[in-house]
Amino acid sequence: MRLKLVPDETSFDFFGRWKLWLGISALMVVIGFASFALQGLNFGIDFRGGTTIRTQSTQAIDVGVYRDAIAPLGLGDVTITEIFDPTFGPDENVAMIRIQAQDEAEAVSAETIAAVEAALAATTPDIEFVSVESVGPKVSGELIQTAVLAVSLAILSVLVYIWLRFEWQFAVGAVAALIHDVVLTIGVFSELQIRFDLAIIAALLTIVGYSLNDTVVVFDRVRENLRKYKKMELKDLLNLSINETLSRTLMTSLTTLLALISLYVLGGDVIRGFVFAMIWGIIVGTYSSIFVASTILLWLGVKRDWSKPTNTTGNQFADIDA
Amino acid sequence: MLQIDSWKRVLVLLVCVAGLLLALPNAFYTRVEQSNDARAAIEVQGETAELTEAAGQWPSWMPSSLVNLGLDLRGGAHLLAEVQVADVYEARMDAMWPEIRNALRGERDTVGTIRKQPSPGDEIRIKISKPEGMARALEVVRGLGRPIQTLTGAGSNDIEVRGTGDEIVVTLSEAEKLATDDRTVRQALEIVRRRIDEVGTREPTIQRQGADRILIQVPGIGSAGELKEIIGTTAQLTFNPVVSRGTDAEARAEVGQKVIPALDQQGVFYTVEAAPVVTGEELVDAQPAFDQNGRPAVNFRFNTSGARKFGDYTRDNIGAPFAIVLDNEVISAPVIQSHIPGGSGIITGNFTVEESTNLAVLLRAGALPAGLEFLEERTIGPELGQDSIDAGKVATVVAFVAVLGFMWASYGLFGIFANVALIINVGLIFGLLSVIGGTLTLPGIAGIVLTVGMAVDANVLIFERIREELKTAKGPARAIELGYEKALSAILDANITTFITAVILFAMGSGPVRGFAITLGLGILTSVFTAIFVTRLLVVMWFERRRPKTIEV
């Protein structure tokens, strides 16, 4: 007996309440924006400069003691958090100390770091500093710019690619879905105040790629069906296309999620935020390729005469030599 | 109907075998690494029994390229340094002043007396007492300019000279600044590389980034601070004429002079001419040595032009002291006893043997032409890296098993075909990574896990399509063929778009993010290859043997 996520034939009506779905999405996007505007992101040092020190010791960590040890150094804003993780051994006690940037261009000086390390070593003799990272505000500013540029460039190039391969309405639908995914991901990071660093940008771009993957598969079927059923109502045609690809959409999302969840649970705390972003993005991306991209396509309408191109990969430029 | 040419079959099989063979060394990482190290050592220092044994751990006819582990996995230090290119302008201007002074003195009748005015380091301001001679003065100073020998700056001069009232202002031209910046960064890069090589660590990455930055990554080093010490920040050696010696740090210095402290005598300050007689750049050799009293010292030798300048200066200034200045501290200020024509000499001071050795190394490696400012520093301990590798391994295996099981449960025999392809796929990723010398980072491992999840997508698309085609009852062979044919456009479009984002990530990202982009991008290539060619070959071979009347996907 085969495992089947969805029956062979489905005929869910995805557009019966399209206004509702689009409304929910719009609301979520607004909430995401609002959260971002109100409390902002919990930027990591990659984006706002400063130093993080990861400590490890066999003794239980008392954040207060650490704080008292560092306070006399007068380093301004210092955040200390203890980290718990199922992959840690019984006597692995890990803490993360974040110190704000101290000067305008350079990363925190070696002396400052040495002073902090000495102060901590005085409280906990067997403390180890397993990683020390510091980023100067000059670089972090540029990293933000590059990150924004990368995400915009990715979305833009996708817009162009889909436009060339399909029609502009498809491109708009796909890009709306992408922006939806990106905004919701940033929104969840701001709402939960998860640390947002450079790796999250990589996750965002992967989400862009993934969500698109899903959208393109649905659109590819729409394009095929547009040739096949010339007289069918667009709404029914979209519904049919989504139903036909539904089993694949869920299969792929599920295998990807399986892989990511194992990484989330077992991959250690260093990349947990990154994996969380991707898990969230895949859920949102799957949703958006059905409820956002296709709905917008329905809303914009689409060229119905696809009879000219003769090959299966025809695009709008295929007519030129016809 | 479902035919694949024999040559295509052979080719696909060959690619898979080659990929897996190339990936194989990574399964025995430590052993292959030791063997590679030993071979490299044998090449340098000849064979010893120990090295031969170490080299023998991995057969030499097997591929031995390994995936580089990123700093976040291996541990080590990462520095992003900005070269303070503007430092050089000041040195250039300082060096130019005596030349300008001499030229203008020759024109005293038309321009009158000249006086250097205080100014920012990157320009020289000269006041002349006869402003009516300005035209002639400008002409003379402009005559000192040299044409620039670069492609972009062709035809322009290295200095810009303008007159305002009774002042002449000399600055470097924009084209010359660009050319100088480029030279400075290259030089700094080379010197950083030499210094790190002197210490002899494994596979350091030393790259230029953008116009004026240098990225330095050294695996296996204790901390970024240690790395900074190796690089040193300036280590600028100069020989300057001494004007006076005193104990006042705030001593008044004439324009063109500066006050600097002595290295080993507390509270002693020297006033020296800012323009050096010779700089460390003209050194060709430096060796630790001992002076006639048996104290540690450093022997040095200048190149021809340095030797001439040094010789001329010592001939003209017998009896006067001159200062050996390292990083703005006077190491020693000996009195010139005699004309030193050969261009070699000895630096003595209160050195220990270790200090004199280090100084010799620093001098030999050459001075950094400009200071470095460190914008980003990261140290990752080896334990953290090892923890990440271990966690990554477990996560990958679990992800793998989950996906394999899931595919088998969903597609039965076809699922197993997809699973074989998936295993080959991961092998190919590692094989490719080894060949191109890519770096595996922690996000890179995430990229592989993600690929494991997504790689089945192409197969899922095909299998779902075959299922659909089966419903229209065309017979299994036709259904399989149509399944592959019709799924192709979706597979390509979907993967090309993801590939575009991987390329953008690679182009814009750095370090770990770039590692992620590489595995993601390679994963897309290999997963498309395995889905379109490998599973298809498996399916076709199975179909040819069994000739089933019906199939269940």
TrEMBL record, chain A:
<dbReference type="Pfam" id="PF07549">
    <property type="entry name" value="Sec_GG"/>
</dbReference>
<keyword id="KW-0811">Translocation</keyword>
<dbReference type="GO" id="GO:0005886">
    <property type="term" value="C:plasma membrane"/>
</dbReference>
<feature type="transmembrane region" description="Helical">
    <location>
        <begin position="170"/>
        <end position="189"/>
    </location>
</feature>
<feature type="transmembrane region" description="Helical">
    <location>
        <begin position="196"/>
        <end position="213"/>
    </location>
</feature>
<dbReference type="GO" id="GO:0065002">
    <property type="term" value="P:intracellular protein transmembrane transport"/>
</dbReference>
<dbReference type="GO" id="GO:0015450">
    <property type="term" value="F:protein-transporting ATPase activity"/>
</dbReference>
<feature type="domain" description="Protein export membrane protein SecD/SecF C-terminal">
    <location>
        <begin position="116"/>
        <end position="301"/>
    </location>
</feature>
<dbReference type="GO" id="GO:0006605">
    <property type="term" value="P:protein targeting"/>
</dbReference>
<dbReference type="GO" id="GO:0043952">
    <property type="term" value="P:protein transport by the Sec complex"/>
</dbReference>
<feature type="transmembrane region" description="Helical">
    <location>
        <begin position="246"/>
        <end position="267"/>
    </location>
</feature>
<dbReference type="InterPro" id="IPR022645">
    <property type="entry name" value="SecD/SecF_bac"/>
</dbReference>
<feature type="transmembrane region" description="Helical">
    <location>
        <begin position="274"/>
        <end position="300"/>
    </location>
</feature>
<protein>
    <recommendedName>
        <fullName>Protein-export membrane protein SecF</fullName>
    </recommendedName>
</protein>
<comment type="similarity">
    <text>In the C-terminal section; belongs to the SecD/SecF family. SecF subfamily.</text>
</comment>
<dbReference type="InterPro" id="IPR022813">
    <property type="entry name" value="SecD/SecF_arch_bac"/>
</dbReference>
<keyword id="KW-0813">Transport</keyword>
<dbReference type="InterPro" id="IPR055344">
    <property type="entry name" value="SecD_SecF_C_bact"/>
</dbReference>
<comment type="subunit">
    <text>Forms a complex with SecD. Part of the essential Sec protein translocation apparatus which comprises SecA, SecYEG and auxiliary proteins SecDF-YajC and YidC.</text>
</comment>
<keyword id="KW-0812">Transmembrane</keyword>
<feature type="transmembrane region" description="Helical">
    <location>
        <begin position="143"/>
        <end position="164"/>
    </location>
</feature>
<keyword id="KW-0472">Membrane</keyword>
UniProtKB/TrEMBL annotation, chain B:
<keyword id="KW-0811">Translocation</keyword>
<dbReference type="InterPro" id="IPR022645">
    <property type="entry name" value="SecD/SecF_bac"/>
</dbReference>
<comment type="similarity">
    <text>Belongs to the SecD/SecF family. SecD subfamily.</text>
</comment>
<feature type="domain" description="Protein translocase subunit SecDF P1">
    <location>
        <begin position="185"/>
        <end position="242"/>
    </location>
</feature>
<dbReference type="GO" id="GO:0043952">
    <property type="term" value="P:protein transport by the Sec complex"/>
</dbReference>
<dbReference type="GO" id="GO:0065002">
    <property type="term" value="P:intracellular protein transmembrane transport"/>
</dbReference>
<comment type="subunit">
    <text>Forms a complex with SecF. Part of the essential Sec protein translocation apparatus which comprises SecA, SecYEG and auxiliary proteins SecDF-YajC and YidC.</text>
</comment>
<dbReference type="InterPro" id="IPR048634">
    <property type="entry name" value="SecD_SecF_C"/>
</dbReference>
<dbReference type="InterPro" id="IPR054384">
    <property type="entry name" value="SecDF_P1_head"/>
</dbReference>
<dbReference type="Pfam" id="PF21760">
    <property type="entry name" value="SecD_1st"/>
</dbReference>
<keyword id="KW-0813">Transport</keyword>
<feature type="domain" description="Protein export membrane protein SecD/SecF C-terminal">
    <location>
        <begin position="373"/>
        <end position="543"/>
    </location>
</feature>
<dbReference type="InterPro" id="IPR022813">
    <property type="entry name" value="SecD/SecF_arch_bac"/>
</dbReference>
<keyword id="KW-0997">Cell inner membrane</keyword>
<dbReference type="InterPro" id="IPR048631">
    <property type="entry name" value="SecD_1st"/>
</dbReference>
<dbReference type="Pfam" id="PF22599">
    <property type="entry name" value="SecDF_P1_head"/>
</dbReference>
<dbReference type="GO" id="GO:0006605">
    <property type="term" value="P:protein targeting"/>
</dbReference>
<protein>
    <recommendedName>
        <fullName>Protein translocase subunit SecD</fullName>
    </recommendedName>
</protein>
<dbReference type="GO" id="GO:0015450">
    <property type="term" value="F:protein-transporting ATPase activity"/>
</dbReference>
<feature type="domain" description="SecDF P1 head subdomain">
    <location>
        <begin position="260"/>
        <end position="370"/>
    </location>
</feature>
<feature type="transmembrane region" description="Helical">
    <location>
        <begin position="391"/>
        <end position="409"/>
    </location>
</feature>
<comment type="function">
    <text>Part of the Sec protein translocase complex. Interacts with the SecYEG preprotein conducting channel. SecDF uses the proton motive force (PMF) to complete protein translocation after the ATP-dependent function of SecA.</text>
</comment>
